[in-house]
Design brief:
single chain, 591 residues, alpha+beta, 9-stranded mixed sheet, 4-stranded antiparallel sheet, 24 strands
Length: 591
């Protein structure tokens, strides 16, 4: 309407649902409890501040190095230092810039934020000259009884139509917060979902080269003689396990031996991945987790990657009876388990790194790798691809002239091409599924390995996710109310509507493509959590409706908010209702 030259007033409201306000209030409460009111922060001493800032920078650099050891650290100030000047952020100091200091203690109550800041927002926008119909303004959450009733109606209808279900589902989760971490609850990683991997179990065999660095492993094997110990690399390609020739670890990486209650076994993996595994189901049918206590896992021993090099392993499905652990300097400890199984026939990175160990004995010797750990092993053809032969990684590396794992751009090109061609055109040339398409054999082999206790499912976020409480999130299987967006009749109805030019206009073919894409992948959406601000789930009030789910049809509320609340009544005081409407009378039938 405005583009047609008409004078238009927009509606405007304040979405207060979710974690941000609650997290900020909690931080303030902790600061006051620890440092007093007004607080005396230790960094007020210049010497202490210098030490704290140095520690923050050192921790950042160490984390970056551990996560991506092949990348050089960047110089200059961190983002935090650039914003704050110190790198030390206190909630008290943030509020001090906005409110009188004597009032700050009141903000330990999250609802006080809702009373204080939205009216200031209205005032500032009015001074900007914003064209807003302030009769329609409101805040969300249970603080506003009118909007609260509107959302309760919405969810009652969804439940009545069987669009909301309950059960254990894998979701991005904050162990510190004790709940699912939805998009609006994140300081990093918006839009990131769970990624499924398969943990392959490579059994540790008794060390056979008399290397002193294996003393710790030998002691672990002796102390827990009745338990099998496994390296557990995470892979997206279980169908390629026939081609394993070795296993890789990062020499400078930090690993642990973790006890798995569900299987009475010991897994060698990174601390980060073990933390995630402790929140996941071993047996979905029995609701049995990998560990006895959710979110906690027993660490029996710590290892550096160097202490794991040269260990003999029994790899499931592999052609070779025994393979060895070799060094790989490009492993990221921030993804997967920090352990990588090697299939040089179909993984360009594996092939190049494996060949380096063969072609450069001095490099291998530097890491205590003897010739018999490498030289007897050859590439095992496992997948035939027309035009690429039976070892696509070898073909692509030779075609692109890749000689070193430092040829990152070419390796990425080779990897993308071999993985795509392997899945879409590949034919299995080994094993009981020989002759089948890779796309058909993959799920079958995956399930066969799980059934044979040679593998387990493992999940982690597609990329790093950090909650607003600064916790790096994992993927956890938790009891959860969720919206069944993937339910066929629902998704098909939406798709039919969106793709019909008579009923829907996206105004842009790119946008239309994204609508169709999201309809395709969006299956289940965790719509509640147990922490933060919002509307309580009507039939199960231990749950709060999360911030994306309570804002899907808020624009419809604009049409009636001027009657229910009116101007200057953001919080929904019934004594100020223009229509003299009592929110207690807003039953589902009213909406």
């Amino acid at each position: 309407e405005r583009h047609q030259g008409k004078n238009v007033l927009f509606p405007f409201a304040f979405h207060c649902t979710g974690m941000p306000i609650q997290a900020s209030a909690n931080k303030l409460k902790t600061e006051i409890e620890k440092f007093g009111s007004p607080p005396q922060f230790p960094e007020e001493d210049p010497e202490v501040r210098a030490k704290m800032e140095a520690a923050i920078q050192a921790e950042k650099e160490a984390k970056a190095k551990a996560t991506a050891p092949d990348k050089k650290a960047k110089g200059g100030k961190t983002k935090l230092v650039s914003k704050t000047g110190t790198g030390i952020v206190r909630q008290w100091n943030i509020l001090k810039k906005m409110v009188p200091e004597e009032e700050i203690p009141q903000f330990v109550d999250p609802t006080h934020w809702l009373m204080y800041f939205p009216p200031i927002g209205v005032d500032h926008l009015s001074h900007f000259g914003a064209g807003v119909d302030w009769r329609r303004a409101f805040i969300t959450t249970a603080v506003n009884p009118y909007y609260d009733a509107f959302i309760r109606w919405q969810f009652n209808v969804l439940r009545e139509k069987k669009k909301i279900l309950f059960g254990k589902r894998n979701n991005v989760y904050s162990i510190v917060d004790g709940q699912v971490c939805a998009d609006h609850d994140r300081s990093e990683g918006e839009g990131v979902g769970p990624q499924e991997y398969v943990l392959i179990k490579l059994k540790v065999l008794p060390p056979d080269h008399g290397q002193a660095r294996h003393d710790k492993m030998e002691k672990l094997m002796k102390t827990h003689s009745g338990k099998s110990i496994f390296f557990v690399p995470a892979t997206l390609r279980p169908e390629t396990m026939y081609g394993q020739t070795n296993c890789f670890v990062l020499p400078t990486g930090e690993y642990g031996a973790f006890y798995i209650d569900a299987t009475d076994e010991i897994f060698i993996m990174s601390d980060r991945s073990a933390r995630g595994l402790s929140c996941q189901l071993y047996d979905k049918s029995k609701d049995q987790y990998f560990t006895k206590e959710f979110g906690k896992i027993e660490k029996l021993e710590s290892f550096t990657g160097d202490e794991l090099l040269g260990l003999p392993l029994k790899a499931p499905l592999a052609t070779y009876e025994k393979v060895y652990t070799l060094p790989l300097l490009t492993i990221s400890m921030g993804k997967g388990t920090g352990v990588v199984t090697s299939v040089p026939s179909d993984a360009p990175d594996d092939y190049v790194s494996f060949q380096v160990m063969k072609d450069k004995p001095d490099f291998a010797a530097k890491y205590g790798i003897t010739p018999d750990m490498v030289n007897p092993y050859e590439v095992v053809p496992i997948i035939s691809i027309e035009g690429y032969g039976e070892a696509s990684a070898v073909f692509m590396c030779e075609k692109l002239g890749i000689k070193s794992f430092n040829d990152k751009a070419k390796l990425t090109q080779a990897k993308d091409e071999t993985y795509l061609k392997g899945f879409t055109m590949g034919i299995m040339s080994i094993g009981p599924h020989k002759g089948k398409k890779v796309s058909e054999a993959k799920p079958i082999i995956r399930q066969e390995m799980i059934d044979a206790n040679q593998a387990h499912l493992y999940f982690e976020p597609e990329s790093k996710v950090v909650s607003r409480t600064n916790d790096e999130c994992v993927v956890a299987a938790t009891d959860q109310w969720y919206l069944a967006y993937g339910e066929e009749s629902w998704s098909e109805a939406v798709k039919k509507h969106v793709l019909n030019t008579e009923t829907f206009d996206a105004y842009d073919p790119v946008a239309l493509g994204k609508y169709e894409y999201v309809i395709g992948w969006l299956k289940e959406w965790a719509c509640t959590r147990q922490f933060g601000l919002g509307t309580y789930l009507p039939w199960d009030t231990q749950w709060v409706i999360e911030s994306l789910s309570d804002s899907t049809i808020y624009m419809a509320y604009y049409t009636i908010s001027l009657v229910l609340q009116g101007k200057g009544n953001l919080n929904g005081d019934k004594s100020l209702s223009p229509g003299a409407v009592d929110p207690a009378l807003l039953t589902d039938d009213v909406f």
